[in-house]
Specification:
Length: about 325
């Protein structure tokens, strides 16, 4: 029996899987807020006690780089080791992988209902596929064929230097560089990033922030849900919140196009993570597509590349389970048909 997990900065998702049931039908599953547990071992123990079952192996997808069997969670104060997990839960094997690598591994197993298409494009059969996943932070990964099957690869591209593409983004870079020194794409294209975009726009014109919104933001630890809620208000959308999400969509489009060029993602670009499904109306506006296509001489190339939003919040769990079970879809993902 396999324990699979998606270990994020905000949520922890666990499932128990068998080869007979496959990676989409767990025997048991649970989700916990990351802040409720002081360590991964505590969260795993809570889950297993609740199921009354004992796995023999584990594959856990973690939000951060995995080096020599050890991971330091990017937005949590946790250090996780494979050997420590094996000893703690008497497992035959324990494997840590990057969480966006796990999302990439899930792509051949996703169904039409798991995806929303932003750009149809002209996908190349068996072409490379890219995943860019803004959540608490920003993750990137990709999927390439080795001649027989797809293999997922992790990256830490979200921490590469942010490159402004417009005058307002020039000002954003200066604003953040004065505060942080190095400005990565994660600083501007994630949950952390949305908060930074809002602060930048507010500083440009303090009078544009409604007093009630200022009061509400002062009462919460995480401003992003409120910013998104006010931007999507169908009757009275807040202008500064709308502008923040328009800027987010433009930056995400630009970096999605960058990633598509870097790995030649002729099979498609997939937007994962928790934020894209929540801000779908903004991704469907012209700002995302305009920035995605703004690639100079390579515009015609990226215009052929499909873009999908992954709507299934279990994609990383499915990918981790598929890798642990040795399962691979024998057919192309439905999104490429």
């Amino acid at each position: 029996m396999l324990l699979a997990g998606d270990i994020g900065g905000t949520k922890l998702r666990f499932g128990l899987f068998t080869r007979q049931r496959g990676p989409r039908r767990p025997l048991a599953e649970a989700v916990y807020p990351s802040a409720e547990h002081g360590s991964l071992e505590s969260a795993v123990r809570c889950f297993l006690v609740g199921t009354g079952r004992r796995p023999t192996q584990a594959v856990l997808a973690v939000a951060g780089p995995v080096l020599v069997g050890t991971a330091r969670i990017t937005n949590l104060p946790w250090v996780i080791g494979e050997s420590r997990l094996r000893r703690a839960f008497k497992l035959r094997s324990a494997t840590l992988i990057n969480d966006v690598e796990a999302i990439a591994a899930s792509l051949p197993l996703l169904r039409r209902a798991d995806l929303v298409c932003l750009r149809e494009g002209m996908p190349v059969r068996r072409g490379n596929r890219a995943v860019i996943a803004p959540g608490t932070g920003l993750g990137e990964a990709f999927l390439c064929r080795d001649g027989r099957r797809y293999r997922a690869f992790a990256s830490e591209g979200g921490h590469a230097d942010f490159a402004p593409g417009t005058p307002i983004e020039d000002g954003l870079l200066a604003f953040l560089r004065a505060r942080h020194g190095h400005v990565s794409y994660e600083r501007v294209c994630s949950g952390i990033g949305i908060a930074n975009l809002y602060r930048f726009l507010r500083e440009q014109d303090p009078g544009q922030e409604p007093p009630r919104l200022a009061e509400a933001l002062a009462r919460v630890d995480d401003p992003v849900p409120l910013i998104v809620e006010k931007a999507l208000d169908p009757e009275n959308p807040c202008d500064i919140c709308v502008r923040a999400l328009d800027l987010f969509a433009s930056i995400l489009g630009a970096e999605a196009g960058n990633l598509a060029l870097k790995i030649l993602a002729t099979g498609g670009v997939y937007l994962g993570g928790g934020i894209p499904p929540r801000v779908l109306p903004f991704l469907r506006k012209g700002t995302f597509a305009e920035a995605f296509l703004r690639k100079g001489r390579m515009r015609d190339l990226v215009a052929r590349i499909p873009v999908h939003v992954i709507m299934n919040p279990k994609a990383a769990l499915i990918g981790a389970a598929a890798l642990g079970l040795g399962v691979e879809s024998r057919t192309r993902s439905r999104s490429s048909r």
